[in-house]
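Sample entry follows:

:::
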Amino acid sequence: MEHATILSGFGGQGLLFAGQVLAHAAMLEDRHVSWLPSYGPEMRGGTASCTVIVSDLPIGSPVVDVADVVIALNPPSLARFERLLRPGGLLVVNDSLIEAEPSRRDIEVLRIPCSALAREVGDERAISIIALGGAVGRGQLVDPESVRRSLTEGAKGGEAAVSRNLRAFTLGLERAAAVSV
């Protein structure tokens, strides 16, 4: 089985970190992984994205033409990446910043107020970890325990950062379970 995920938003929202967490979680499950970042020269505040491919078999190319999951944290990300979702794919939308409705009706849409929840956690960069929790909760990309382990093992910033990220991930999982799509 192979799953392609695109994470996209503004630079500084922790997207590349969330992609690394997903990739590391898959590696903990002995799966093949590709992580490919993409960002403009402006970095913080500009558009950033990354793709993560998780597979049971070797991965032929890191390029994603059709995604199983798209995480869109800002309006330009929704406009750019919604079209790459396969029919039946999962679109995780940051409901705090994106008012527009997706144009497609053949996909599953999970709206989570990621920015508002990140403020509750106390770190704006937690936006992407909250969205990742939603995607893992709905998309069955990796086991949630693998993500928790990845957040703990790869932590920078000490115990406080680990605690915030674990709380953010749990909030995303809870939203995925609670929100009807």
In short: The first strand starts at residue 2 and ends at 10. Residues 44 and 116 are 19 Å apart (CA to CA). The mean pLDDT is 91.
